[in-house]
Amino acid sequence: MSDENKKLTTSWGAPVGDNQNSITAGSRGPTLIQDVHLLEKLAHFNRERVPERVVHAKGAGAHGYFEVTQDLSNYSKASFLSEIGKRTPLFIRFSTVAGELGSADTVRDPRGFAVKFYTEEGNYDLVGNNTPVFFIRDAIKFPDFIHTQKRHPQTHLKNPNAVWDFWSLSPESLHQVTILMSDRGIPATLRHMHGFGSHTFKWVNAEGEAVWVKYHFKTEQGVKNLDVELAAKLAGENPDYHTEDLFNAIANGDFPAWKLSVQIMPLEDANTYRFDPFDVSKVWSQKDYPLIEVGRMVLNRNPENYFAEVEQATFSPGAFVPGIEASPDKMLQGRLFAYSDAHRYRVGANHNSLPINRPQAEVNNYQRDGQMRSDSNGGSSVYYEPNSFSGPTESAQNKPAAYAVSGEADSVAYDHHDHYTQAGDLYRLLSEDERTRLVEAIVGAIKPVEKDEIKLRQIGHFYKADPEYGTRIAEGLGLTVPQVV
């Protein structure tokens, strides 16, 4: 069989009908668990590296607290948000995405921004990045995307051909690519960058009324970025520069802090907003949905043991508490499964019983046994449900709030396919100096790509976002913008 006729198959040899879109209820979702191809891809992907994290392997962490500064209980019944002045202990892990455990801190890469709130109703994990958007918007593409960021299977070298081939064939990546290649792609320190929940989430109040929300952590230290040449110098001389800076700042009493704000969208607006609000490659305009301050995060204590606290910390976007729930964001829906599954593989089925992950709230369930079970394993108590022996039972008031879904179960993309407006808006917001550095970074990154076909396809995307954007990159590569664009 020729290469042109090879069919993509599952691991059990069945042909795959759609590898770009997960099966959802209608174009908006949510994702259906019957999509066995999606589950197989994510489950296999989580088991591709041993023992470090498949992504976000290199990281630094710290303890701190979150203090409420504005009462938003009319939007969410989450207890840790319930009153002004209330403090909740937390642990945060910052990380790079693509590099291995020993890689340099100062490379051009998004930064993970994962926060674990130890609330009295259980742990709440907000697992985001230092960017408000992402490269893809459907979890079914995630293993393929990360493969392009990793090493070539033959040379074991980073592969710009794979990186730009994938991005050029996935135009939804353009917004995030523009951010990554801008000055913000290399933060000066972990303290001098913003953080975002990135996804859309749902808040529910005590009356069962719901809204859509997005999270924004704004650094009080100010945003600072590294010059490309200095970043490269530090990568060679001190590859742990960001890790060292965070530890030393806290050790010296210079406690970093961030203000947490949210954007709030009424449920019904999701059906009429000019961009799909669940598409993680898009932002909501702050003119449409202004930032509302919620509280303040302060980091004031370093870990005592890196492995026990930073390396064994596990975060999942699915670790919710009453008052905070999932949205039909397709990327989020896949992460609800993938993150916890990765931890069960990497750390063990009982990862949440480790001290760094253990909730401060009492845990009552019927999960028993498994590797590294370090507590009493439920003792002699009842181990099944329903039962007649006064075992823990569900509380109906904590059921997630319902929302309507519609459409046929099918592998379909989001209805909105405008991948260029927001990337172009971002380009036009940059100063001339910032645009010049952005173009230089992109040109330098694309030059090693062997196929002009890939370069031209990517130039076309830049041009559609803004003609000047595409033209300058084409000129830097010694090419011309394709006539078809």
TrEMBL record:
InterPro entries: Catalase, Catalase_3, Catalase_AS, Catalase_clade1/3, Catalase_core, Catalase_haem_BS, Catalase_immune_responsive, Catalase_sf. Its EC number is 1.11.1.6. Residues 8-25 have a biased composition (Polar residues). Residues 1-27 are annotated as: Disordered. It comes from the Bacteria. One of its GO terms (cellular component) is cytoplasm. Gene3D superfamilies: Catalase core domain. It catalyses: 2 H2O2 = O2 + 2 H2O. SMART domains: Catalase. Heme binds at Y339. Keywords: Heme, Hydrogen peroxide, Iron, Metal-binding, Oxidoreductase, Peroxidase. GO terms for molecular function: catalase activity; heme binding; metal ion binding. It is an enzyme of class 1 (oxidoreductase). Residues 9-393 form the Catalase core domain. Its cofactor is heme. GO terms for biological process: hydrogen peroxide catabolic process; response to hydrogen peroxide. It holds the Pfam family Catalase-rel. The active site is at H56, N129. Belongs to the catalase family. This is Catalase. It comes from Cohnella abietis.
